[in-house]
Amino acid sequence: MRSVHASSAVCCAVAGLLGAAAAAFGKFGFAACSSHFTGALLGAKACHVAAYCTMAVINAAMTALFVRSLRRLPSLQATVLSTAANMAATGLLGHLLFAEAISRQWAAGIALVSAGLLLICMSVAGKPEPAAAAAAAETKSAALQDHHQQQHGKTKAA
């Protein structure tokens, strides 16, 4: 069961990374495709279309991975894992691809947010989802009713 949670956590993290990559392609499609170099090489319209189509495909893959992880992890845990990966990757991709500055405040903020998200994940780890808990309670209630009926059936038959 632990490996299922680990693989689901990896799906969440990859979904967050893909979300950051999709955002980078969206920004590229909006800003970089209008530059003289890219416009002359591909044509501005073709560059916009290629960037936005790539962004859509990456978003579809991100959604598929996130939904897969939601089936196996509590929704809060899946959401915070994906969000943490997305925030960190967005900042790093912005720095690497668009020369955006990463300040000490940004790094401290990411560290604090990640620590908070880790605490949230640890607090929900091992706790069943409300739907799973309700299903388990319903199963237990049905088993008790069956047992009760069996006991009353035996006393009436005797």
From TrEMBL:
Signal peptide: none
Transmembrane intervals: 49-67, 79-99, 105-125
Region of interest called Disordered, as start-end residue ranges on this chain: 137-158
Keywords, sorted A to Z: Membrane, Transmembrane, Transmembrane helix
Protein name according to UniProt: EamA domain-containing protein
